[in-house]
Amino acid sequence: MQSKETSGTILVIGALGQIGSDLVVELRRRYGPDRVIAADIRPQPAHYQGQYLQLDALDLPAQLEVIRAHHITTIYNLAAILSARGEQDPLNAWRINMDGLLVTLEAMRITGINRLFWPSSIAVFGPGSPKLHTPQDSVMDPSTVYGISKLAGERWCAYYHEKYGVDVRSLRYPGLISYRAKPGGGTTDYAVDIFHHALRQDPYTCFLREDTLLPMMYMPDAIRATIDLMEADPASIRVRSSYNLAGMSFTPGEIFAEIRKLVPGLQTSFAPDFRQAIADSWPGSIDDSAARTDWGWEPSYDLAAMVADMLAQLEANQSFVVPAMGPGSSN
């Protein structure tokens, strides 16, 4: 049974980020452009279309004003400082990631609006977590401020659900790959940046080892998972901290080899930096059986299908010239 979005207005905070850039487009397609308000701390970009508000995720009075003025019934709060950028300024990352969530939870408690999506991450796991098929309930000993803030945020989400009845829903995203948004300071961003280099035929130096196995997901699958979770019957949602979510796992060497099937001239090298230690603390694959059982999650893209679509979308949308392409495969 699905619980569809049938009334009210949806607010997306952090709408100009990696997830928000794709999520707003799909929400407007599904529910109509008049029902989705994009908000971000940055001024509205000149090219941006649709309803937009400049909003600081840390400003409680401003969030309350927006909720009341626009009859908001659902919030997607995506504002965050990602893993690699967070390590460069840990206190600021904690402030943005933690206080930004608490402000929205409080705004929902005060106004009585009920449904919230907040993204967690595989960064909640750490060196003590199982490296392969990491289960839903496991040791969580994150080694980055990003992971620490996400783990704390999960507990706040569960607390507000139990104490105040907030219908909060969350996913532990793996590394995300999108053709709409540029890399945003994450440890898995090599898997986005490599495509831009490939299509420009520029050599690429990867900041992770060739054999670094990490869980990843193509953005269309991540957006579908997010909306499917939000549309699911509340009675089916058993996890109020955050659900494990899996798409595919691969290494830099494997994705580079797959891209070379379509862009034969791609040249790569490897020079691991501080992000290698972050990646080494994360799982190599994720057990998402709870999401599959509770609300029917199943990914659509494997590595080959993702690579082929990513190259095609970038060529079509950013006017790149791609060399003659050989045969690809899809699932």
Task: Briefly characterize the structure.
It is built from eleven helices and twelve strands.
Helix-strand layout with pairing:
Elements: E1 9-13, H1 18-31, E2 36-40, E3 52-54, H2 60-69, E4 72-77, H3 83-88, H4 90-111, E5 115-121, H5 145-164, E6 167-173, E7 175-177, H6 190-200, E8 204-206, E9 214-218, H7 219-231, E10 243-244, E11 248-250, H8 252-260, E12 268-270, H9 275-280, H10 289-295, H11 303-318
Parallel strand pairs: 1-2, 1-4, 2-3, 4-5, 5-6, 6-10, 7-9, 8-12
Antiparallel strand pairs: 9-11
Helix pairs in contact: 1-7, 2-4, 4-5, 6-8
Structure description:
This protein has 331 residues and is α/β, with parallel strands linked by helices. It is 40% helix and 16% strand. It is built from 11 helices and 12 strands. The protein has helices at 18-31, 60-69, 83-88, 90-111, 145-164, 190-200, 219-231, 252-260, 275-280, 289-295, 303-318; strands spanning 9-13, 36-40, 52-54, 72-77, 115-121, 167-173, 175-177, 204-206, 214-218, 243-244, 248-250, 268-270. The strands form 3 sheets. A 7-stranded parallel sheet has the order 3-2-1-4-5-6-10, with helices on both faces. Helix 1 packs across helix 7 (219-231) and helix 2 (60-69) runs parallel beside helix 4. The two termini are 27 Å apart.
